[in-house]
Amino acid sequence: MFEFDPNGSYVMPAHFGPRRFNPKSSGWYHDVTAMVVSYLTDREELARYLPEPFEVGEEALVSVFYARNRQVDWLAGHGYNMIAVNASAVFNGASDQLTGEYTLIMWENLTDPILTGRELQGIPKVYADIPDPSVIAGKWQASASHFGHKIVDMAITDLVDATEEEIEAGHKAQADSTPMAWRYLPGVSGFGQTTSEPTAYPSENVFTSVRVGTGSLEWHELTWEQNPTQFHIVNALAALPILEFRPALITEGSTNLIIMDRLPRAIS
């Protein structure tokens, strides 16, 4: 008869045993191409989606982050694409005082990182079709869709190499910023809850190329018939006013999601 090992690391279906760890595995994503389009929005409207004790950061910034992830160690070299929507936030907890970004939602086009990210790190991940970016006449474009209906289109043009000062400022901002989210697991049947807690999931990036450009973004309002499980999320994001775009970024490099002295954790 199957018995749980109290020291094992399990994900469903748990009865096949703990997760297998390969010595070749690590948290490194060796080939990451990213697009970031950020904009200023209405503070009160954005605050509606940040549970206490989170608060909107110094500026009410929303960042839409696209990444084409390749050569992922824990996926034996396989990869996937993602689009995340993050809000600048501060966490004023009883024990933790953190500044960074709160993940409102993260779309991915592969089940494996969706499940591990939701269950183990509390990141609000859901599925979408996310193709590789296209680059035509210097214009970078990326998008996400579900059930054949567009969710978002993003684009970056007028790219130039970032200056040393801009790169240094970006490194400092990253060092001072903590990615955060909320881990919510409902009770069986969907009512009540088994877990409801804020989380932090640090990462580190190594950039080989950084370019700055002009970003644009279009959210597509949806109906229940078009996207029955996500339409309310997409429409809420579409309703956030875009008051001012900030400089957009194209980066290339690598990312590490497992930092041994700063592992993902619940915060309080």
Description:
It is a single chain. This protein has a 15-stranded mixed β-sheet that branches. It has a domain of 187 residues: Beta Barrel (Acetoacetate decarboxylase-like). Helix content is 14%, strand content 47%. The mean pLDDT is 95. It is mainly beta.
Summarize the structure.
The chain has 268 residues and is mostly beta strands. It has four helices and 15 strands.
* CATH H-level superfamily title of the domain at 23-134 and 159-214 and 241-259: Acetoacetate decarboxylase-like
Rg from C-alpha positions?
A: 19 Å
Quaternary assembly: single chain
Shape: globular
Q: CATH class of the domain at 23-134 and 159-214 and 241-259, anyone?
A: Mainly Beta
- What percent of residues adopt helix (DSSP H or I)? 10-25%
SS class: mainly beta
Number of helices: 4
Alpha carbon gap, first and last residue: 38 Å
Give a quick account of the main beta sheet: strands, pairing sense, barrel closure.
15 strands, mixed
What is the succession of H and E elements? Answer: EHEEEEHEEEEHEEEHEEE
CATH fold-level label of the domain at 23-134 and 159-214 and 241-259: Acetoacetate decarboxylase-like
Q: Extract low-pLDDT stretches.
A: none
Q: Would you identify the CATH architecture of the domain at 23-134 and 159-214 and 241-259? A: Beta Barrel
- β content, as a range? over 45%
**Number of E-type strands:** 15
Mean pLDDT across residues: 95
